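[Automated response] Your request has been received and processed.

Submitted sequence:
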Amino acid sequence: MTTQTIQPSMLAMLANTENEFSVSAQAQDDGWVVYVHDKQGDRVLLDLEGKAAAVFDALRAVEQRLFALGIEQFEIKRLEKENGYDDWLYAEVREALDDPAPLIPHEEATRRIRAAIKVK
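Generated structure:
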């Protein structure tokens, strides 16, 4: 499946029309990627050279680029959790809560952790 793209200049032109569209910044493993959603589908914003998807290292950089292109608001989408993560986390917490072993006071737990760090 080929990902559709949009040039920054085309997004600037779209921003100055009456056409319905929305923009979102989505967190990826390597940074933030901007998507334009309109009747043509979901399109990835290209870098200024128009050769590859624009990947931003900070959300502030996304905001600055979009503002320069005439986009004043956009949606922020965080990286999706892997399937089953919530179930795994719930099970871990439930197991800890159900553990019949006596509780360890905070000071003792801290002492043990510091001792383990010193051993390394």
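Summary generated for your ticket: Helices lie at 8-15, 59-68, 85-98, 106-119. The CA atoms of residues 94 and 102 lie 16 Å apart.
If you did not submit this request, please reply to this message.
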